[in-house]
Amino acid sequence: MDTHLKETRLDGKLAYDGGFLKVTRDRIALPDGAETHREFIRHPGAVVILPLFEDGSVLLERQFRYPLDRVFIEYPAGKIDPGEDPLACAKRELQEETGYTATDWHFLCTIHNAIAYSDEHLDLYLARNLTAGEAQLDDGEFLETFRASVPEMLEKVKSGEVTDVKTVIGTFWLEKILDGRWSPG
């Protein structure tokens, strides 16, 4: 199945080994037999948390993102540590970044946000029955939290104020959950 589209790795090497990301450069055979190279980022994966309050509002963050030199509106998220269960990571990241904990968790989906140049995946979780606490930000991590309604978030997506892909997709999920079209599992 799909063999007429499959690219096959012939060999490769680690082109860059950073503290967070690794870049691989592979020599591959294309479906027609021609050879070329593929360079891509290796990423351990991450989680995204959609913290939903009883009133239908959601908890969000404002955080500066260096590669694009600006502050972005995002849902809480974080990298999965080696050997860490994704749900455990989601619970840890929510508490560390926002101080909130939740007693009701639902896995929603996995997304691949940069398929042309990275193997990164993001697991989205819905978190409900939230309780406030004190954030425990990592050293060098700076962010602000705030609440917004899902209709407000949809307007921010529509206007282009929110462009972060995990936040756009998460907002669409929440819209469908809140109007009853989709069940969180």
Write the layout of secondary structure elements.
Blueprint: E1 8-17, E2 22-29, E3 35-42, E4 46-51, E5 57-65, E6 70-74, E7 77-79, H1 86-98, E8 101-111, E9 122-131, E10 144-149, H2 150-159, H3 165-178
Helix pairs in contact: 2-3
> Going by CATH, what is the homologous superfamily of the largest domain?
Nucleoside Triphosphate Pyrophosphohydrolase
CATH fold-level label of the largest domain: Nucleoside Triphosphate Pyrophosphohydrolase
Regarding CATH, which class of the largest domain? Alpha Beta
Instruction: Report, as a whole number of angstroms, the end-to-end distance.
Output: 30 Å
Mean pLDDT: 97
Count of spatially separate domains: 2
SSE string, helices as H and strands as E: EEEEEEEHEEEHH
**Helix share of residues?**
10-25%
Structural class: alpha+beta
Number of helices: 3
Kindly report the spatial arrangement of strands forming the biggest sheet: 7-4-9-8
Tell me the radius of gyration: 19 Å
Family: Belongs to the Nudix hydrolase family. NudK subfamily.
Catalytic activity: GDP-alpha-D-mannose + H2O = alpha-D-mannose 1-phosphate + GMP + 2 H(+)
GO biological process, one term: nucleoside phosphate metabolic process
Cofactor: Mg(2+)
